[in-house]
Design goal:
- The structure is a single chain.
- By secondary structure, this protein is an alpha+beta fold.
- The chain has one domain.
- It is about 35% helix and about 35% strand.
- It starts with 13 loop residues before the first helix and ends with a strand.
- The relative contact order is 0.16.
């Protein structure tokens, strides 16, 4: 008794080709998912540095306000806060800020029981984070003073 096994005359290899195509599709999906995740992390980091720059500029304004007194008049120099480095509790640099306070105008307020002047000041502050994000903030305010400019 002869047992013969049927052998195909020609193998086509369709399973191999389909398997390779599926492997290629899965690889492309994996790479694009990793790129998307990396891009998301980069965007989140950039937003954090931008927020740090904004908060540093706000810190410059607060320091300028608390430094007072403010000089009113054409011959008054600008009240300047030099560039100041800010560190986190671990000693790592967060960024820096600087601020300038400038006298703008003096206006007379009439019609009250006592005449007074409103002295107008402007603070311009710049905050910069460690990776170069920058924020420029301004705040204006009035101080009430005697009736003389």
């Amino acid at each position: 008794m002869n047992a013969t096994t049927p052998t195909p005359s020609r193998q086509r290899g369709a399973a191999l080709v389909i398997g390779l195509i599926l492997l290629l599709v899965l690889s492309v999906l994996a790479v694009s998912t990793m790129n998307s995740a990396t891009f998301g992390l980069t965007m989140a980091g950039n937003m954090q540095y931008s927020e740090n720059a904004f908060q540093l500029a706000e810190t410059g304004i607060e320091v300028a306000i608390s430094n007072g007194p403010f000089c009113a008049g054409a011959d008054c120099p600008a009240n300047q806060i030099p560039q100041t480095q800010v560190l986190d509790p671990g000693g790592h640099a967060i960024g820096s800020y600087q601020a300038d306070t400038v006298y703008q105008t003096c206006t007379l307020k009439d019609g009250y029981s006592a005449n007074f002047r409103a002295y107008h000041f402007r603070i311009a502050s710049v905050g910069q984070s460690t990776r170069g994000a920058q924020s420029q903030n301004q705040q204006e305010f009035f101080l009430i003073g005697p009736n003389a400019c």
